Amino acid sequence: MANTGMRRSEALALRWNDLNTKTGRISIRRAVNTEDWTTTKTTKTGNARVSDVDAATLKALTAYKVTRAELSFELARADAYIFGDDDGELRSPDAMTSRWDRRLKWAVKVKRFEHLPRVTLKGLRHTHATILMELGVPPKVVQERLGHSTITTTMNIYSHVTPTMQKNAVSQFAGRLAGT
User: For the residues of 19-83, what is the DSSP string, one character each?
Assistant: First the structure.
């Protein structure tokens, strides 16, 4: 769920009824409790948020729901965890990180995937925010997608993007003055 800016514990706690395929939005209401990953808790900031999702991600999630239903209809119920295990239970965030790392290492060994950069799950979240900032998406929107409690948090973490944004701003300004 890198394109939503979700934390791994938030993604693992998603239920099918948190996904609205008609509006293309995900409601992020809870997170896996990292101290007792068999339970959920409120999000890191204690606030729920809604995040828009692109069409390709919606299509992938819809196909995944069909796959889950083929295993068991219980896994595709509205209150079932989207990324639950084969028994429908929560997954451990640390186990998912380990699985991600192992699969990425395997993928790089396969010749057609050797160009894949080594990126962590947290790195996907960071990349999402960095690209949004570089594209000129307003910081307030980035803050909301990431679920930061304040804009200051977002700007402190992603201040490294500012030089790139400054150069783009100068180029755009000069282009406008030149009439291009």
Answer: EETTTTEEEE--EE-TTSTTSEE--TTS--EEEE--HHHHHHHHHHHHHHHHH-GGGGSTTSBTT
